[in-house]
Amino acid sequence: MGQFCSEKILWVLALVFTCVLVSINGVEASHKVYPDYQSLTASNVGRLHRTAYHFQPKRHWINDPNGPMYYNGVYHLFYQYNPKGAVWGNIVWAHSVSTDLINWTPLDPTIFPSKPFDKYGCWSGSATVLPGNRPVILYTGIVDQNNTQVQNYAVPANLSDPYLREWVKPDNNPLIVPQAGENKTAFRDPTTAWLGRDGRWRILLGGKRKHRGVAFLYRSRDFLRWTKAKHPLHTAAGTGNWECPDFYPVPKQGSNGLDTSVLGPNVKHVLKVSLDVTRYEYYTLGSYDTDKDRYIPDDTSRDGWNGLRYDYGNFYASKSFFDHSKNRRILWGWANESDTAYDDMTKGWAGIQLIPRVITLDPNGKQLLQWPIPELESLRGENVHLSGQVLKKGDVVEVTGITAAQADVEVTFSFAASSLDLAEQFDPAWKTLDAQDVCGRRGSTVEGGLGPFGLLTLASENLEEYTPVFFRVFKAGYQHVVLMCSDARSSSLMDGLYTPSFAGFVDVDLTDKKLSLRSLIDHSVVESFGARGKTCISSRVYPTLAVSDKAHLYVFNNGTEAVKIETLDAWSMNRPRMN
Ligand SMILES: *[C@@H]1O[C@H](CO)[C@@H](O)[C@H](O)[C@H]1NC(C)=O
Ligand SMILES: *[C@@H]1O[C@H](CO)[C@@H](O)[C@H](O)[C@H]1NC(C)=O
Ligand SMILES: *[C@@H]1O[C@H](CO)[C@@H](O)[C@H](O)[C@H]1NC(C)=O
Ligand SMILES: *[C@@H]1O[C@H](CO)[C@@H](O)[C@H](O)[C@H]1NC(C)=O
Ligand SMILES: *[C@H]1O[C@@H](CO)[C@H](O)[C@@H](O)[C@@H]1NC(C)=O
């Protein structure tokens, strides 16, 4: 199916979206500003939809993960934070530490506006550990009320402090200022640096030139004096402003991660950017031409709107880091709320970080695989196991014995070869749609051939509310197209919510006639991994009936073809120490 979707459907999309983009130019804005709510300290924190095991501070607004790193036995997570309210504003770098990426201890904010070079804001950035085990943070400072952006650095005040609590912003900041002719308000989010064979460090900054998204390349020998390269590392026409670029190697073979500076014939490179216009993230796999200092996406990797996404739901401003203690690359991503700013102000908090994911290259070489860090399994409590159960059309089976609002579920479905022949036809008219729109038309209530089947998460007893996460298999000529949906349209009886039918296609080989799904359910988030991490989708939902011990978990099939639960394991999840 991969071919079918990525080539034909996506080409058409490319044209459609390019036109849309040009016409919506001018509405690019990173965060809505609500001046009245910006500094309203939350006295009460609404518990109803708070997550238990996803990363959150005690209260108030969070966005991008910043500068994640592992240093002297401690994981550090910094993040964009409003210390004064539950909407975006007053942004500082908050800081938490952990030894297992599960239990978190909060520390005081590390970087906050205090100098002329960051007086109006301390925006996103990254950490690099320099030779001699010396960490340094690069971040974007806002220097005036017009949002002019510069790049600054900060270093630990005391390298003997095991938590690196205090950081210093030296007076020779800023290190990088926008050049004449560059857009000064689209010039931000320095990456972790990598070292070239010529002994020079390199970083990327996100930005744009007119409608072209740009990953500006800067080089430095001493990490202090930075020179802009004549050519950006990469650009793509019509994609608008690029934020939060991330650039790193993955090994062609094996499941280890690599340090950001690793080069050579045995690696591919990944370039990820966050598109300010769509508020989604896209990545390509490609090769890094170190002679020309340019990145060239593979021709199997579509560059732009219609490219591969880490997550086809609510996931943005992500950043990866290399965890050398376990030789793996870990990805952090932020999920905003899908309720209103007024709701956020009332509940006193907004935003979570999704569960960190280990990134590896799919053996097919055409995409990445993502899987929750194994440490998460330490939170698993009571377990329910099912196997061999056949689900006929219309069957709904409850999974009982676990806390359905706070759970980890892994299920593998199997089906007969003959069922593949009886899959519904992929309507050629849908070739101009993206997966989300196909899911919008063919949701869980629309009977299919093979599928829809999957989980009903955060479901009320009589199904007034539920968030189905499911597969639908289509026939398209001699191939099959597998759609995975996480559909929030029936998730809540509340009004005014953002309830998209998030979906992605799954480039999976069906010769073993199996499809697997894992969902991490945590009160107001459902984070799902299809086919062992080929397609991931996160939804934020706010049930009113399906809350805490009133939430249920079901398995369902609404296709004419029977499917079998090969195995299902569901666990109640315990609550870690969370800030
Ligand atoms: C901000 O932009 C306005 C309009 O271009 C300009 O008049 C003003 O001088 C700018 N302020 C600063 C601090 O750059
Ligand atoms: C640096 O941190 C170490 C370990 O916490 C502490 O003993 C020492 O007093 C600190 N030094 C300064 C100058 O604060
Ligand atoms: C710079 O980017 C901002 C934000 O996208 C946009 O509003 C502004 O028009 C751009 N300025 C120029 C000169 O292109
Ligand atoms: C299955 O389809 C029936 C008929 O459309 C519908 O009433 C039911 O809600 C569907 N089940 C799910 C889980 O969507
Ligand atoms: C998260 O909130 C929804 C609903 O308000 C918006 O539609 C998204 O654009 C937003 N996502 C990001 C990354 O800001």
TrEMBL record:
Gene3D superfamilies membership: Exo-inulinase, domain 1, Glycosyl hydrolase domain, family 43
PROSITE patterns: GLYCOSYL_HYDROL_F32
Keyword Hydrolase: yes
Key word Transport present: no
Pfam families in the cross-refs: Glyco_hydro_32C (PF08244), Glyco_hydro_32N (PF00251)
BP GO terms, sorted: carbohydrate metabolic process
Domain Glycosyl hydrolase family 32 N-terminal: 54-372
Domain of life per record: Eukaryota
Residue ranges occupied by any Glycosyl hydrolase family 32 C-terminal domain in the UniProt entry: 375-572
UniProt keyword list: Glycosidase, Hydrolase, Signal
SUPFAM superfamilies listed in its UniProt record: Arabinanase/levansucrase/invertase (SSF75005), Concanavalin A-like lectins/glucanases (SSF49899)
GO terms, molecular function: hydrolase activity, hydrolyzing O-glycosyl compounds
Signal peptide: 1-29
Assembly information from the UniProt record: May be present in two forms, a 70 kDa monomer and a heterodimer of the 30 kDa and 38 kDa subunits. The ratio of the levels of the two forms within cells appears to be regulated developmentally.
Family designation: Belongs to the glycosyl hydrolase 32 family.
Name under which the protein is recorded: Beta-fructofuranosidase, insoluble isoenzyme 1-like
